[in-house]
Design goal:
The complex is a heterodimer. By secondary structure, chain A is α+β, with helices and mostly antiparallel strands. Chain A has three domains: 12-306, no CATH class; 318-429, no CATH class; 437-495, Orthogonal Bundle (Arc Repressor Mutant, subunit A). Helices cover 39% and strands 19% of the residues of chain A. In chain A, strands 1, 3, 7, 8, 11, 12, 13, 14, 15 and 16 form a ten-stranded mixed sheet that branches. A three-stranded antiparallel sheet of chain A has the order 6-5-17, with no helix packed on it. In chain A, a hairpin with an 8-residue loop joins strand 9 and strand 10. Chain A is elongated. The termini of chain A are far apart. Chain B has a domain at 5-43: Orthogonal Bundle (Histone, subunit A). By secondary structure, chain B is mainly alpha-helical. The model of chain B has no long low-confidence stretch (mean pLDDT 90). In chain B, helix 1 packs across helix 2. The chains are: A alpha+beta, B mainly alpha. The interface between A and B is large, with 57 and 38 residues. Bound molecules: zinc ion (ZN).
Chain lengths: 499, 96
C-alpha cells in the first residue's frame, strides 16, 4: 500500500502538514492544574482553565522553554518579541469562548526538517516550516452514539494544556514522504524531551493539506482544490489517507475538471475502517475567528543572547546522532537509523556495548537481533532490560575468543535474560564449559580416525566434506566450537601422508 | 467610517447574539459611532509608532511549572446547567 515518490504519475502530489503536539510539562499552560492524561473527567480543572470570570492566566515558564527548544531544533528563527492572541469561536469543549493562541507574531518561523528514507525509497526531502506557535488545547467531548442519548459529555481536563502547532510548507511530494517526515519530527521531539508524541493518547495530532498539480497538454498546470484531511490516528493512517485522497482527487479532476479557486477548501475526515475520506459538514463562517491581542497576557521578549544560549544548550538531534554512529562505529546508515529510532537510552546501551567489545558491527547485530527482539516480545524499553551492556559484552567476548559459537552464545544470552544470571553462572549451569585445546585436539584426532571416507573425500579436494565431521563432534561434546573443529580436522587431514 | 447593518448582523451571529430588527438598527447606529470615534486616530501619522501589543509596558511574566491542587469535580461542574456528576452535559456534538 505504501506509495513511494511516483515519477510515473501524470501529476505532482503537493502535501503540507499541520502538527499539534502536547508539551511534557507538569502543569497546564496558564494555570497550575496538572497536565496529565487519563485522570477521571473534570478532576484537573480550576477557575482559570474553566474560564470562570475574574480568573487570569499566567504563562508556564517550562512550556515556553520547551517550545523554544523545539523550534530551535527545527532551525526556526526565534522571535525577539512575541505575543498571544484570542481566537474566538464557540464550541462546547472551549469554555472561555476563545482559545489563547498566536496570530501575527508567533514565537518562531521559517524552519526546516529533512525526511530521509533509510531504505532509499525516495530522495531526501527538505521540508520548510512556515511557523511554530504555542497555544492552549481544548477539552474533550464524548458522544455515545450507540447509547442514543441526547447529550454529549464534556471533560475539561485537557483544557488549557500546552500545545505546539507546527505548520509545514507544502513541500512533501508523496504519502510515503509525509509518513517518513512525521516519523522524523516525532523522533526529534521525543529526543528533545519536548513531547511524548503518543498518537493514541492524542499528544501528537496531524492534519494534512493535499492537492495535485497536473500538467496540461499546453504546458500549463491544473491545480486541484486543496483538501484538508482530519481524524488520522496513526502514521499509517496518515499514509493511507493521503494515498487514498491523491487517487480520489485525480479521479474527481478527470470527471469534473474542478480546479483550485472554483471550490472552497474542503475538509474531509479519514475513516480508517472503511479506508476512505469523507466530506465533512462545512462549518459556517468557521474562518472568521476575529483574532485580537490577548489582554490578559503580557508579551515575551528574548534577547539575542538568551536565544543563543538556548541554541547552544541543544542536545544532539537524531539526524546528527545517526551520522555520528555510522562514522564512529562503522555501521550502515540503515543500522544507525534502526538504533536511533529506538531512542536515546537504547543508543547509549549500544555505544557502551560497542566500546566494550570494540566492534560496532557486532554490537549492532546483537542489539538488533537479540536485544530488540526481547524488548518487542516483552513490550519493555531498554531501561527495563535485565542484562546490562557489560553482561552482553561478556558473552560476545567469549564468542570472539572461540569459547563457543554465535548460536550457543545466543542461547546463553537468552538464558541470562530469562534468569538474570551472569554469563559465568549460565555457562556453569548449562554445562557449557569451554573445551580446552588438548581436549579438542584429541576429539578431532578421533574423528579423523573414525571417518576414512570423509578423509578420502577431503584429500581428493572436497573440503566441504569436512562438514560431516562437525555433527559428529557435537554429539561427542555439545560444547565444541564448530569452526574450530573444522579448522583443526582439516589441519590434521592435511598432515596425513598422501593416499 | 460606518458599519452596515450586514456587518452588525454578521458580528452578532458570530457572537451568538439573537438581535431583533430594532436592536440591530440600534446597534448599527451605536457601533458606528464608536468606530467613528476610534477612526479619529486615522488623522494622526502613526508611521513611527510601534503597534501596541499590550497596554502594560511589562513583558516576560512567568510562573514556575509546579502543580497545585485542582478543584474537586463536584465543585468544577456545580454551576453547569446540566451535568451527570462527572461531566458537563451539552446538546449533542455530532460528526466532525
Ligand atoms: Zn486549571
Amino acid at each position: 500500500m505504501s506509495e513511494s515518490t511516483d515519477n510515473t504519475a501524470p501529476y505532482t502530489t503537493v502535501i503540507g502538514l499541520e502538527v499539534h503536539v502536547q508539551l511534557l510539562t507538569k502543569t497546564k499552560l496558564f494555570c497550575s492544574c496538572e497536565n496529565r492524561f487519563g485522570a477521571p473527567p473534570n478532576t484537573l480543572t480550576c477557575p482559570v482553565c474553566l474560564g470562570l470570570p475574574g480568573s487570569l492566566p499566567v504563562m508556564n515558564r517550562e512550556a515556553f522553554r520547551l517550545a523554544v527548544r523545539a523550534a530551535s531544533a527545527l532551525d526556526c528563527t526565534i522571535a525577539e518579541f512575541t505575543k498571544w492572541d484570542r481566537k474566538n469561536y464557540f464550541y462546547p469543549d472551549l469554555p472561555k469562548g476563545y482559545q489563547i493562541s498566536q496570530f501575527d507574531l508567533p514565537f518562531s518561523e521559517h524552519g526546516q526538517l529533512e525526511a530521509i528514507d533509510p531504505k532509499g525509497g525516495f530522495a531526501p526531502r527538505t521540508v520548510r516550516i512556515l511557523r511554530v506557535h504555542l497555544e492552549e488545547d481544548a477539552g474533550k467531548s464524548m458522544h455515545d452514539e450507540a447509547a442514543g442519548t441526547a447529550d454529549s459529555r464534556i471533560d475539561l481536563n485537557r483544557t488549557g494544556t500546552p500545545l505546539l502547532e507546527i505548520v509545514s510548507q507544502p513541500d512533501l511530494r508523496s504519502a510515503a514522504e509525509a509518513r517518513c517526515w512525521l516519523g522524523e519530527l516525532r523522533l526529534l521531539l521525543v529526543y528533545l524531551g519536548v513531547s511524548d508524541c503518543n498518537m493514541q493518547e492524542g499528544s501528537l495530532r496531524v492534519d494534512a493539506n493535499v492537492n495535485l498539480h497536473i500538467p496540461r497538454a499546453d504546458g500549463s498546470l491544473a491545480k486541484t482544490p486543496i483538501v484538508e484531511i482530519k481524524n488520522m490516528n496513526s502514521f499509517r493512517s496518515v499514509e493511507r489517507a493521503l494515498t487514498y485522497e491523491v487517487a480520489r482527487q485525480y479521479e474527481e479532476w478527470q470527471a469534473t475538471g474542478k480546479e483550485l479557486g472554483s471550490a472552497p477548501k474542503q475538509t474531509r475526515g479519514w475513516d480508517d475502517a472503511a479506508g476512505i475520506t469523507r466530506g465533512q459538514r462545512h462549518k459556517e463562517e468557521s474562518s472568521d475567528y476575529r483574532y485580537f491581542p490577548e489582554p490578559d497576557l503580557v508579551p515575551v521578549r528574548l534577547t539575542a543572547d538568551e536565544i543563543a544560549t538556548i541554541r547552544e544548550g541543544m542536545p544532539e538531534t537524531p539526524r546528527a546522532l545517526r551520522q555520528r554512529l555510522a562514522d564512529t562505529w562503522n555501521i550502515s546508515a540503515y543500522d544507525a537509523d534502526v538504533l536511533v529510532g529506538q531512542g536515546r537510552e537504547l543508543v547509549a546501551y549500544f555505544e557502551a556495548l560497542a566500546k566494550l567489545v570494540d566492534d560496532g558491527k557486532v554490537a549492532s547485530n546483537w542489539m538488533q537481533q537479540d536485544v530488540l527482539r526481547t524488548l518487542n516480545d516483552r513490550g519493555i524499553t531498554i531501561d527495563a532490560f535485565p542484562v546490562p551492556a557489560e553482561g552482553l559484552a561478556d558473552v560476545i567476548g567469549r564468542v570472539k575468543k572461540g569459547d563457543f559459537d554465535t548460536s550457543r552464545g545466543r542461547d546463553i544470552f537468552a538464558e541470562m535474560i530469562n534468569s538474570g544470571r551472569s554469563a559465568d553462572e549460565v555457562v556453569a549451569e548449562m554445562g557449557i564449559a569451554a573445551v580446552g585445546e588438548d581436549e579438542l585436539m584429541t576429539l578431532c584426532r578421533e574423528l579423523v580416525a573414525e571417518n576414512p571416507k570423509i578423509v578420502a573425500d577431503v584429500q581428493s579436494g572436497k573440503q566441504q566434506a569436512a562438514g560431516g565431521l562437525i555433527g559428529q563432534a557435537k554429539k561427542k561434546n555439545p560444547n565444541v566450537n564448530p569452526g574450530k573443529v573444522r579448522e583443526l580436522c582439516l589441519k590434521i587431514i592435511g598432515e596425513l601422508p598422501a593416499p | 467610517m460606518s458599519l452596515s447593518r450586514d456587518d452588525v448582523a454578521k458580528v452578532a451571529a458570530l457572537a451568538r447574539l439573537a438581535l431583533s430588527e430594532d436592536e440591530l438598527e440600534q446597534m448599527t447606529r451605536e457601533l458606528s459611532k464608536i468606530v467613528g470615534f476610534v477612526s479619529l486616530l486615522e488623522e494622526l501619522d502613526t508611521s513611527d509608532v510601534e503597534p501596541l501589543a499590550h497596554p502594560l509596558g511589562t513583558t516576560n511574566v512567568f510562573r514556575e511549572d509546579e502543580p497545585a491542587p485542582s478543584l474537586p469535580v463536584e465543585l468544577a461542574i456545580a454551576t453547569a446547567p446540566k451535568q451527570d456528576g462527572e461531566c458537563f452535559l451539552v446538546p449533542a456534538v455530532l460528526g466532525d
